């Protein structure tokens, strides 16, 4: 038996290897914070924010009246809501439906504009982000991806659709404390992790490398999405978070790909 090192061969699929762990997550946020302060990245913040803002205005303009009308008709058929509403009116307080319907309408329309901004950041801003961080910190990571644009657009479409459908279907659970907070965090963690992890590596990683990275760093990507979802609870963060999250995932994904390509394998050759 003899061993022969292979110095620059990527690790075989399925080969065990350590992930970056919390250190990699912290490093990604630290590098993203530095990158976000660059003038080009500050300017990039405007694109998804303005598109999300315009989308929100259009949704409110064209969708508010029909949505609130439909919700009002549906609420009139909910026995629990009717009972509570009648009791509140009888004791001289207020009508629950007057406040419930606008809140539900806003809870549907505003997240839709938010996911639109995130999708725009994933498809159109991520290439700018990758070019920015790639030229400065990941020059050795050669782009070897295939059909990057098609993969990115498809991923943005299905994630946006899944987010929208899941968000609306689980809205009734918001009436059960503390599900409103938990569902908000879950769906936005899903959106950030599923949307950004593909776009962060699709231009640089081969399909085989992408499959291995997504499997090896699944918890890492979900952790990034969870932290971004927590930040998303703060309304001022809505302005910069689409681009900042793209920077976080780009740093994490390219760092993981760089380490993957630096790994070596040992071929065991039987010469007996």
TrEMBL record:
Q: How does it sit in the membrane?
A: Multi-pass membrane protein
**Annotated coiled-coil segments of the chain:** none
Localization in the cell: Membrane
Q: Which UniProt keywords apply?
A: Membrane, Transmembrane, Transmembrane helix
Which sequence ranges are marked TM in the entry? 41-64, 103-130, 151-169, 175-192, 220-241
Domain of life the protein comes from: Bacteria
Principal localization reads membrane
Q: What is this protein called?
A: EI24 domain-containing protein
Give the organism, scientific name. Answer: Bordetella genomosp. 10
Q: What is the lineage of its organism?
A: Bacteria, Pseudomonadati, Pseudomonadota, Betaproteobacteria, Burkholderiales
